[in-house]
Batch of 2 targets.
Target 1
Amino acid sequence: MKHKIIVTGGLGFIGSHVVVELQNEGFEVIIIDDLSNSSVAVLNGITAITGKKPVFEKLDLRDKPSVIDFFKRHHDIIGVIHFAASKAVGESVNLPLLYYENNLNSLIYILQELYKKDTANFIFSSSCTVYGQADTLPITESESIKNAESPYGNTKQIGEEIIRDTCKVSENLKAIALRYFNPIGAHESAKIGELPIGTPQNLVPFITQTGIGLREQLSVFGDDYPTEDGTCIRDYIHVVDLAKAHVAALKRLIDNKNAENYEVFNIGTGKGSSVLDVIKSFESVANKKLNYKIVDRRQGDVIAAYADTHKANTVLGWKAQLNLEDALASAWKWEQKIRNT
Ligand code: WQD
């Protein structure tokens, strides 16, 4: 009998790649998405890759009666992988109540439904942003949680606490939070990938859009940081490797090997790359010079963040297989595909 799993935000960048890997592993997937930051066309991309069309329901998870009705209709699920959330750091500073309502109410309503079930597994999309500027690098899961720099980051911190406290008093709900570092790239088929709406806030989509001529020039936010080349360092992980970490986490929950009811894992490559490293690597894979200039620092940026992946490697049995060049080559292939060049 196939395990049936709900993926909220399953038409988004990371969610769609996780749906593909779940289907590849034989799971039956039901996608919930409100289409506020995704397109129903992504379903075709997923189906073209796996040959299996996931069930899709458009649903606003802030609508509690609809959530209750949905879970009544899908009572035979083994759990939820929860991506659905607003995720633009800058926007969250200007629209805090939108972020707290969307990101926290939807989480609470889902957990209330899972709490009623005899057994339930829950995987939460968290972020290394909860660490702020870590005191120690590489960053382990025991690194202290800093005061969030943005309402977005705060919703991830509060979200983890809500899950932790719920699992503490529930016999049958088990959860894993995955703290992503910097997801980049696209599926090798170029049938799914990142679809930023408007001007990309993140580095790699801005680079590929500059490379394809959609953007005039990349602005590098500061080269006066205390790093080797003065630019910030991040742990850029291929989105397919990140997707496979979700399957590993789900299998751990299903196999009931969970030591505690709530566990946290850092999901990165363990390697730090500077902004200039990424630019140089892109120029190499795309075989073209990138037009960029150095500008002032961006408020809220941490100097460096890259993962200690020992816990995920040993406990989840998961390790990133792809490197920065693989990820940038896939991002570039995807950019060219969606611009039909
Ligand atoms: C990476 C580096 C920028 C754009 C954010 C969120 C995090 C997660 C991933 C959701 C930084 C520099 C960027 C540009 C640049 N999002 N940069 N010019 O800020 O590490 O993480 O996205 O979960 O929660 O905080 O990623 O790609 O925005 O920036 O110089 O046009 O690239 O200064 O050093 P970030 P990013």
Target 2
Amino acid sequence: KSKVTVKELAEIMDKNVSEIITKLIGLGIMATINQELDYDTAQIIASEFGVEVEPLEDVTMDDVIDDIEIEPDRPEDLKPRSPVVTVMGHVDHGKTSLLDAIRKTKVTSREAGGITQHIGASEVKVNDKKIVLLDTPGHEAFTSMRARGAKVTDIAILVVAADDGVMPQTIEAINHAKAAEVPIIIAINKMDKPSANPDRVKQELADHGILIEEWGGDVISVPVSALNGENIDTLLEMILLVAEMEEFKANPNRKAIGTVIEAQLDVGKGSVATILIQNGTLKIGDSVVIGTTHGRIRAMMNDKGKRVNVAGPSTAVEITGLSEVPEAGDQLFAVEDDKIARAIVEKRINKIKAEQLKASQKISLDALFSQM
Ligand code: GTP
Ligand code: MG
């Protein structure tokens, strides 16, 4: 629901309809009792009455994930793991093409069927080392996952078209990567174009606090062409280089911890979710908690569409066996058994309800908007 009527707003704020209408007139809006208002207008009216507006979104999963004991790993249990890479950048600068180019050089050459991609993540091997590439966290998904505290990416590839330069979403991507504290590698794309001007890109990046190595900074940049494959191998090598410096590690011998990359309801399979395993190993039959969803892993499928029985750190798998469809950005925890999983979910749901009640005692416009 994206609208609320004057009457509904008056009711939730415990005001007279006429008072609301008067305020609306003050804002230059001629309203009737059944007039529909959008969220922003409703919020302005609420604040005009001095009513505190507490959005429901304030109750995040973070508030309720205090119910799982996450034991820290002992340093001796940590093993190197593959880097997880997200491609970001402005619209049309070539993010998808770049991922395709990477897969083409690394996948199609081996697989007759062409680009195999079954889930929103893919793995490529470079010099016998694995790199996990996330497709989904296109810009918005990444933003919302970040806002929810989910950290899925180790390295951000920032694609900047050499003929277009730094654009608004490039700057947003820079800010996201900085906020997430992940290293950035710049891919200056579309180098095949006659109008390509990499120096301009470098200058504009410098203007936004990204100083590349050539210019005395510490950010690696690689001029590439997703179209003709120029320097794609170099880019991949740079990813491995950065990964080596960062020394990503995880403990494969513990219960799995991961994050939902995407999830949906499948007619045949029920709730399916693509999970990036970040620590531990997920196995068929494991009981899991994901947000307010639980389940037992019935089947797992890797990025090549093959069934697998185990998935270790830095692996993306599609899982089935969940009670409901979880949300992107939700964290997965494997737990001892179903009983524990169910108990945790019940506790979480109750806690969210209690928090919502608390919020609604002030006034929650969001609740009003989402209920109806
Ligand atoms: P959105 O997902 O819409 O944000 O775009 P994107 O960043 O994924 O860009 P996409 O890969 O869809 O490419 C946009 C356009 O640029 C397409 O027409 C591509 O063919 C073209 N393109 C991508 N890479 C290159 C390149 O290296 N050289 C040239 N000449 N064109 C490219
Ligand atoms: Mg795209």
